[in-house]
Input
Amino acid sequence: MSAIIINIMKKWVILVLIGPLLMMLACQEVEPPNFTQPEATAQPSPPNPEPVPAPMPLPPSLTDAGEFFFSNCASCHGINREGNVGPVLTPESLAALSDAEVKDAILNGRRGTLMPAWKDSLTDEEVDALIQLVRYTSP
Ligand code: HEC
Output
């Protein structure tokens, strides 16, 4: 009698030990396709946004001017030139000024205001690029 019970118990032990192992193997086989499928669907999508990357093909000097503006002017004139402690700098807001007056403001600053003079830190080309930026391109 006891030998039969031991035999039955051995079978159960084998089932209890191997059962979970088989289930783990089965799960491992099922999961990878779930992970690879999103990648497989994610890969075909990049071709769609391809026509979009056409961000303003500005001449290099103007791109630099944008970077320069971001680092040196945006604190006072706003990241999008919307104005802050300094006035708005857009083609519309500067329409009343000539290029020469804008250049003078940048080169010599505005005495008695926070607007600093940039003539010692910018080349003529860089100032011209900044004038192009603030006077002839919309933010
Ligand atoms: C510390 C603050 C500050 C910084 C930095 C600054 N500005 Fe100004 N800016 C001013 C202020 C204030 C005025 C207004 C001066 C006035 O009342 O005449 C001004 C005026 C101007 C004007 C004349 C606008 C107008 O309508 O009369 C121009 C152009 C200008 N800034 C360009 C720039 C550029 C380009 C830079 C970066 C190279 C720059 N500013 C950096 C504060 C600043």
User: Anything to note?
Assistant: The chain has five helices and no strands. The CA atoms of residues 19 and 25 lie 10 Å apart. The pocket of heme C is lined by residues 72-73, 75-77, 85-87, 89, 94, 102, 105-106, 110, 113-116, 118, 130, 134 (CB under 6 Å).
